[in-house]
Amino acid sequence: MPVNFPELIKLKRDGGELSLADIHAFVQGVKSADIQESQIGAMLMAIWQKGMSDEETLALTKAMMNSGEVFVWPEEWLVVDKHSTGGVGDKVSLPLAPALAACGCKVPMISGRGLAHTGGTLDKLESIPGFEVNQSVEQVKQILQDVGCCIVGQTETLVPADRVLYALRDATSTVESIPLITGSIISKKGAEGLSALVLDVKFGRAALYKDLDSARHLAQSLVTVGNRLGVKTGAVLSRMDAPIGRCVGNAVEVCEALECLKGRGPDDLTELVTALGGYLLWISGHCHSLETGKIEITQKLKNGDALKKFQAMLVAQGVPADVAHSLCSDATNNFQYMKKAAHQTELKVPQDGTVLEIDGLALAQVLHKLGAGRTKSGEKIDHSVGAELLVDIGQWVMKGQTWIRIHHNSTELSTHQRSDLQTALVIGSSNRYKIESRVAEFIYPK
Ligand code: IUR
Fold first, then answer.
1. Could you tell me whether strands 386-389 and 439-443 are parallel, antiparallel, or unpaired per DSSP bridges?
2. Which atom of ligand 1 is nearest to the CA of 208?
3. Domain ranges of the chain
4. pLDDT tens column, 84-116
5. Most CB contacts within 10 A, which of 10, 13, 199, 302?
6. Who contacts 45 (Cβ-Cβ below 8 Å, separation ≥6)?
7. CB 339 within 8 A of CB 88
8. 180: CA distance to ligand 1 center in Å?
9. Active site residue 184
10. Predicted TM-score (pTM) of this structure
11. Sheet harboring 402-408: ordered strands across?
12. 80-330 is classed in which CATH architecture?
């Protein structure tokens, strides 16, 4: 009998609970295009308004995961991954994937592209000459065998239902729904065939969720559904107000990630990499505690093992060996292969005082307009556009001191862009300021 979609929509609209069979039929309908777009939109809005129980969210996630290919790896592999809900200056995946590979894990990291103010790991990597994000399943398997980690784009075969649902969520203002976000993220991670997963759920001005409580709600849903799907899943709640590290953009972020891999990255970036990596090593069973996990990741960043893995990954994904070697050699000034912007503009601190805030969202919005980001999927971006912060939160600064260097290709920054950037810097008179760590809380599997 054909499924009566209007009845299913009505059931959810009126606050009822969908059965496993109902949810399966809905996802199958989405996949096979047996259901009209208007009906999908109406169901998404009903879910957005009425929510879903844990059982319904789990059923949705499973049905989405099984709408396409599910990877199966050799049994002896410890296959792990990280997912972040998106931030400004978030280049954590770049050092983390090779650090985990250096610990003996396999990391088939499937990443995304930037949209709106958040950057995408794939865009960052594509600022390295030759880097190829599109790899077949066979190639991914070979790279995992030979190197241990890769960072690739979504394949056509993985969770096809999410592509349709995600585009329609965007079009119907139903993106911010915990069951829909959970279904989208965990179905894709489940299809990667993972043993363990850590989620970096961000909160703050430049994050999807502005406050800790809402981020915790999302994290709990992700952790519950991930574990019930058979993936050992934990989450970290991390602050996302100021940009992570001192660089925002694409090419500039790769340079900063390389510094982290050389053991001299900014403290907050290194903190996130070791916390997320250490937590993953612990929940996956590789280490017996969070602390030993963190120590192992720290060692791999300091002794050059993670850097060697990163270099091997670059070569395996198409970067010429001499370019990869130069980027990964120890000299500070070895980034001649990275594309440079035509102009650099420095802005000055307006008054003496302590740096209280650097608004990551405002900064990202200006960089977006200068070409670093995209508004619609598929748009081209300018990898050379970016910003280098020259001051830290909590630092005492003097009027006239340079606080930011913008790399851009447009001849001049507009008055508007200059003033938006200047309002991103908040200076206060107190010379005492407590620097908060990035990691606010760990969410453990129940
Ligand atoms: N990333 C995803 O993969 N899915 C989502 O729904 C969101 C971010 I929001």
1. unpaired
2. 9
3. 5-51, 80-330, 340-428
4. 998 999 999 999 999 999 999 999 999 988 766
5. 199
6. 172, 174
7. no
8. 8
9. yes
10. 0.95
11. 247-249, 386-389, 402-408, 343-348
12. 3-Layer(aba) Sandwich (3.40)
